[in-house]
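# nightly structure sweep
# worker-07 picked up a monomer target from the shared queue
# config: single-sequence mode, recycle default, output format = structure tokens
# input follows
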Amino acid sequence: MGTTEALLDGWEDTTPSGDTLVLAAVRAMADRATRWASAAGGRIRAESGLVLADAGSPCPFLNVATATRPVDAATAAAAAEFFGGAFMLVTPRPTPDLRPSGLALMGHPPFMVRPVGGVAPPWPSGVTVTEVRDAAELAAFDRTLADGYPMQASPTPPSLLGSATRFWLARADGEPAATAVSHTAHGVTDVEAVATLPDRRGRGIGAAVTWAATLADPTQPAVLIASDDGVGVYRAIGYLAVTRWTIWFRP
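# output follows
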């Protein structure tokens, strides 16, 4: 009897990112996390199907494990050992119960894709959206994100300005009101950190700043992981819900 050749499943490290939008998206998210961790003086470890990027932040959203391989208890334990504190584990695959590894389930959020094309509508009255380009604007971005998400305040490394990671700040009546981040890699634009201050919600400001991040590179499709509350906003922009991912975290 001849040897049995292993069948490929499209998640191998040698698979081109353009094979599927899901693969491109998870790789882009890992790229964003590793660049952030590097700029923050953090630690990075990459192995087959798993990228660990620790920015040393008190916020778990900035210390990220992204997994394309199946996640089991051993993988979760290795990630938990690598990170010094809070972190999140993101995977497009279902997982077993990882609570015995010390993690808590954040949820199964929708993964959404927006095809190339279209233009943003006019901003709501009194709203402007600009790209952050200097340290003062970045400080305003950080405060708005922390208050709008809400999340632990964590300064963004200024060296990320002018890179593949771009920062967008919406103002309402001249005051900071909402944020978004776009990261261009692996043929997609990854949209993250969409947050609107509580007293500014319901005016279309979050949609405006999401438009700006979505069209950061209008030649590429955009991808994001949505909250269930935000799905309607993203659908109105043209995003389509494709599947649900899995996110675990350690606070």
